[in-house]
Amino acid sequence: MATYVVGDIQGCLASLEALLERAHFNATDALWCVGDLVNRGPDSLATLRFAHGLGERFVCVLGNHDLHFLAMVYGGQPHRPGDTLEALLAAPDCFDLAEWLRHQPLLVETDDLVMVHAGIPHIWDLDTARANAREAEAVLRGSGHRRFFAAMYGNEPALWDAQLIRMPRHRAIVNYLTRMRLVDADGRLEFAHKGTLDALPPGYQPWFHYPSRVDKTIYFGHWAALDGRTDNPRAIGLDTGAVWGRSMTAVRLDDGRAFSVPAALRDRPSEPL
Question: What global pTM score does this model have?
């Protein structure tokens, strides 16, 4: 049995199927995903059904697009430009799939790796990251999840403070784990920059350029413009932009071998997203 961890799928099921075929994925193998199973690509419904159908062989963390879908289901959030969730929202099993997705974690770890969607800021050690993830997961899974999803969106607080409470605290945790790209030396989040590592805003660096307090390799997605390049062997970026028409990438954890396929024609956008 082998375990493969794949970058952001975002409803690009045809690309995922081609990637799994390239890797000779079989019925005894496990598939892990760094989040963003849905949205922007053409097959969010089929992607969720496929992932759910793998049962215990599938492990994922929640990404910001997954949370957006859940906010539409539970929090009354509207469609945004570029969303491709109509078929999923209209499906007879939409609620069942949303309930399954709502109970997925924000952080997964083994003895030597951590998997999150966006990353772990240098101001958190692993104990802090783990505790914060478990705290936010309890909110997402708990009886107050509708209140959280109704108020989830926002860029404040942009700086972590252990004294934060209630919604500001939970929003900050979710933003660090699912939306982070750049931070300053104090750990303050910068949300506007989504491009390459050129022309960064003054005072900000990618989270993985700071000395990490996490003594494990971090597998993450979210930042397609990196095309997987971090120049940090302990930060493995797996979002290589399938939904943008580039490629989809996975790593076999057993031996570290990487697999990549060009985005399937069906998954390539007809116009910029």
Answer: 0.97
